[in-house]
Amino acid sequence: MSSFEFDTAALRGPVDRSAHVRLPESAIHGSAEEELSVRRLVISVVIQALGFGVLAAIVVVFVQLIFGGDGMNVLTWIIAAFMVAPFAIAQIRAFGSRRRALDESTYRLTRFAADNRMSHVGAEPAAQHLVARFRTGGPLAIRDLLRAPERSGLEAGTYHYARSMGRSTVAHSSSYVALDLRAAAPSMTVATKFGDVWSQTSTRGSTQHQVSINEDFDERVRVYCEPQDDEAVRRQLTPQVRDALLEVAGKCDIEVDGGRIHIIARKTLPFTDPVFWRWVGDIDRLVSLFSRPDAPVPAETASGWRSRSVERDALFAVPRSGRGFAIGALVIVLGLVAAAVTTAMS
Predict the structure, then answer these.
(1) DSSP 8-state assignment for residue 178
(2) pLDDT per residue over 69-111, tens digit each?
(3) What single-letter DSSP state applies at residue 317?
(4) Which residue from 90, 137, 143, 292 could staple onto 161, CB 3.0 to 4.6 Å apart?
(5) How far apart are the C-alpha atoms of 23 and 41, rounded to whole Å?
C-alpha cells in the first residue's frame, strides 16, 4: 500500500451501536457536540415554536376577519398550534437523525484513523489556522480534523463558520485537504468560478491582486498573487498543471502559502465515504505535479484521474432539497383553509 492509499474497511463495516465514542476535544465552541446538545435543541424548539406560533396566530386571525369572524378565539390558537406542531416535530426528528449520524461518523473515523496511522480530533478552534479561507466570517471550529504528518503533512478537516447577511447569520462549511509542497512555489490563490451555488464567496490574501494566466483557464478560475509574483505564478501554472488542477480540483479553491497547499471545497465533504480518500490520493499526485510544473503527467496518472471523474463529480454534487419545504407549505395552506372554512361555517 502506497503512502496515499488508505485502508477504508472501517468506513464500510457495520457500526456497533452499543459503543458510544466521544472525543474529549469535541465539545469546544462551534463543534458538532455543542451544536447537537440537548440544551440547544430545547432552546431552539421553544423559541421557534413561540415565534412561529404567534406569527401563525396573527395570520389565522387575519384570515378569520376576512371571512367575517369576530377576531381571535380558542380556534385561532388550535389552528396555529396545528400549523406549528409539524415544524417542532421535524426539529426533534432532525436532531435525532443528526445525533445518530454524528455518533456513526465518530465511530468510523476513529477506527479509520487508527487503521491508517492518523490522528483524529473532533473539533479544534479555527483561529489556529491562518489560511485566508479560515479568516472568513466568524470563525467557529474545524471539525473532524485528521492528520498524518508522515504523509507529506496530510491534514483534512471541515471549517465551520458564520457570515452575517443583513440582520441574519448564515452558517457555512468548507472541507479541505492540505499537504506539504515538495518544492518551493510562489504564494497564490486559485478561486474556482464553480461552486457559487453554495453561496460562499472566494477568499484571497489582502495584498493579492488578480493575474491573468490563460484565456481558457481564466474563464474557469480567478488567480490571485502578490504583484511581484506575477511571472513566477505564470511559470508555475504550466499547461499540464492547469489541466490537472481543473480535472482534480476544478470545483475547489486552492491556497498556496508557506510551503503548503490547501485544496478547499465550498461545502462539507463526506469523510466517511471511501471516494473522498481516493480523491485525496489524486490530490497527492496533483501536488507532486505542482512541485514539478514542467514534468509531463504520466499516462497512468492521467487515465486514473479521468476514470474517477464520475465519482468525483458525485462527491461535489449539490445536495437535493428534501420534502420538508413542500410538507411545510402544505401544512400552512391546510391551516389557512381550516381557518377560512371554520369561520365561514360559524
Answers:
(1) E
(2) 777 777 778 777 877 777 777 777 777 777 788 888 888 999 9
(3) P
(4) 137
(5) 21
